Request: fold
Amino acid sequence: MTNKIKNRILVIEDERHIAEGLRLNLSLQGYDVRLAFDGVSGLQEWKTWQPDLVVLDIMLPGIDGLDVCRELKGDAKTRHAPIVIVSAKGEESDIVAGLELGADDYITKPFSPKILLARVRAVLRRRAKATPAEDEVIRIHDIVIHPGRHEVLVGDERVDLTFTEFRILHTLARRPGWVYTRYQIVESIHGEHYPVTDRAVDVQIVSLRKKLGPCAKYLDTVRGVGYRFLD
Reply:
């Protein structure tokens, strides 16, 4: 079954047989696919073609995949580009690094084409369901959260947060008083079935509290359950 409207997918992968296999499988599902075999040409292809999603390998010649991801997420024009990382680097630290830079998913090699297709569909579906409320500026206590600018102010001071720290704060602050489990926090940010441990969420909360200074008191730990933002 093919898409009525073709989503454009850019595959940045230096192993040509893998890249061609991805193009074949994605094209059979109705996606419009282009290939790039290194980071530099991948970034150039993004700028000229502006795809709906990027499938990105990490170990690329020249500019590696993490630097490509960092550049896309650091540019206001491409910040919201959905990125699915595919990599042979499957250690938890590698996965966390990719997600920290803002990747929407991380799949370790080798993987089934069906798994990749399911993940791509899930990412595109989540992006399509984004509601205007998610872009509304939140003002609560002495904190201002501006999703469009990816900006947080505590009082009059701007706080520099990572992608994941920002998303955790935004998720909790949108529903003050509501208790989220660690799993729900991960799911709300990256979707289901992400290989991230509870400990990884706790580490992000600790870092977030440090950066929020006096407003850290509003990030409440609900013992044995998870976290909430106090109203």
